[in-house]
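Inputs:
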Amino acid sequence: MADPSPVRGPVVEADGISKRFGATVALSDARISVAPGESHALVGRNGAGKSTLVSILTGLQQPDTGTLRFEGEPAPSPGDTDAWRSKVACVYQRSTIIPGLTVAENLFLDRQSSGALRPISWKRLRHRASDLLAEYGVDVDPTARAEDLTVEQRQFVEIARALSFGARFIILDEPTAKLDARGIERLFDKLRALQRQGVAFLFISHHLQEVYELCSTVTVYRDARHIVTAPVAELDQQALVEAMTGESGRGTEPAWSVAGRAAADGTSLLDVSGLSLTGVYDDVTLTARAGEVVGLAGAAASGNVQLGETLAGLRRPRSGTVTVAGRPVRTGRVPDALAAGIGFVPEDRHIQGLVPERSVAENATLTVTDQLGPFGMVLPSRTRAFAERMIADLDIKTPGASASVSDLSGGNQQKVVIARALATEPHVLVAVRPTNGVDVKSKESLLGTVREVADSGRSALIVSDELDDLRVCDRVLVMFHGRVVTEFPHGWSDEQLVAAMEGMTGLNHTKESDVSHH
Amino acid sequence: MSPTTELRAVPTAAVPAPAERRFTLARYRDLSLVPVLLVLCVIGFAVSPAFLTSDNLLGVAQQATELSLLVLAQSLILISGRMDLSLESTIGVAPVIAVWLVLPDHGARFNGLGLFPDWAAIPLCLLVGAAIGAVNGFLILKLRLNGFIVTLGALTLLRGLQVAVSEGQSIVNVPGSFTYLGRASWLGVPAAIWICALLFLVTGSALAWLRHGRALYAIGGNSEAARAAGIRVDRVVWTVLILGSLIAAFAGILYTGHYGSISADQGNGWIFQVFAATVIGGVSLNGGRGTLFGALTGVLTLQLVVNVMTLAGVPPLWNQFLNGAIIIVALIISRFVSGEKQE
């Protein structure tokens, strides 16, 4: 059980690691070193190079330069899966459990028996599974089907499986993203127990609070580079957030400006009161006035995206009311939300936004097909006219209204999605990550469009975790684990907002609100 | 006859209490048609005294052999997350090509090439089957073409090949080895039934107790996870496709031997019955679920319904209607017995 661990090298030591994908530098001279039994956190904003490091550490990718050593020995050769598994275990963000099979079989997949022609002894397999689960103190029935487990139990099974190959070092890639607060607590208890058995961790999380709770050392990556490695105790929250965001000033000045607007006295167009969705968010109340852009910030598990989708009618809340321009909206139905005057820009334009092979005109008019001709007809001429007006209004760069939407650049595709949302002339525009995957210039113009919506006397709600998206807002509400925890007026600093999204509301914020239950 | 259900019949003392009820139902989803079969037997007995005679039951079983072999092949393919529509053409074209290569080039109504001796008919037939599976596998796995359309194309192509080679006629002078397998009787039971039962037993055991058998479930359930666990996904799937076509070719031998001729439309339209039997037997169209025992109960259900109706004096013109009706009724039954959606 207890690992005496005499004088030994670090379980993993990577130095001078660089990796390029085409023109993109994913990692540049990065390093990391994890001591035996240590719980080491790796933090950084999106695109900092964390995922690339994980695939290099697990042998899925080869670094262009640099050295990688496990317990002082060189890393195994690239294709030698078994050797890699005996050095490093990894629990990925995406589940690698097969739902239809039992827990026991999942644990010993492709090694159920010692030889290909040797019949599997299911009894022995169950015993081995029980032993393995007991060794790591996982209370799961090995005969249960994996699909009947909770997310948390599945994660424990994956951890046990990962460790069963003999590795004493495990990488956890955002293990808490899909767990609720109590599940996170139990996961942490489990990890601490494993740590006492001598297992070392590399813990990747977007929630800094968890880093402080669990880890002894933290490494920060930013823009594909190693920034700092320090004991958690020596790096306070302010310093950590600064290391993540960088202290350099902002880039180009945007064309729009937020300051000096008199928005507060507009009539309220969107009123959300006591809205709850089981297990996602709870008792959310917010207001957006005419002429106002409101930001709804929050990290992955905060529930802000789901709240946006609820407003659009994609999800049915458990309780609460939504009122648009003084009229209550029947929740949970998209046609009602559209009729009430809510325009929606979904999170992922490829999945929820566009019909890829169809034309710009068809995509832009998808929400207003009832206005394009009598008796349910859709007249091509009216569709084209409508689309051409949208193309001109939003400055969509396209060869024409009949061009396939897949041929457009990401930014222009996103404009088509926004055009579709605006086609119904909504009172409120709800945009989830409106600049997701578009280049810097398109970003400016997309956010300018959202700003214009508000300036023309309507209101907009931007649901995002991107600081650049939120800069266009008159005020920003921050959600954490399903609750609105704080609110910032325009003029917040990056550090303040990031800290609030990571669940540290104690950091000089402006308004003492609901205390996070974390 | 139910090796694959063993692993689910394990005691579950450690299952937490709230989950118990769902588990019990889910575990027996492969047995959901057994009560239906029993009810059919009772009805058959009530309808006609001729039902429970060994002649009648063996007749039903003999008629079910060829269809059940196709179902066996399709089950393996479906469990590993693929589908093969061309099986119904393989059952016809493989014997035709084998016979064409073997039969002498003169002196009969159908003239072959006479390239091989008589005894080579069965190996050649199996070889043709394996080749069809290998080509399908190449198109689907190497060229990454859509499996549904590839095998739909193969279905039509192979059917056309059969018509062209046999000049659109039935071939009545089939080799003796075919006739033997189709007509021989071992210990009073047709050889085809023995062989079929043996194949189900062996394949079912492999699925239940061999690593490579379990790999099919892993691939069909989540092929990325299977790959991550070290399973060579493409190689296993290719093997399964070849095996499937091989079994279909073998079914063709039994069918040809049984009826003593190869008709031009041998196997035509069977694929609907094959899918129906497989799915009502509890094999998922999305892969990763189901057992051969369940699939077998599916075939038997379809065959028994027709038999009982015939004995009851329902005109055979209604058979097709009844077949369709029983498929839908059986689907509804297995939907609610297993408690799972069948998307």
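The radius of gyration of chain B is 21 Å. Flag for discussion at group meeting.
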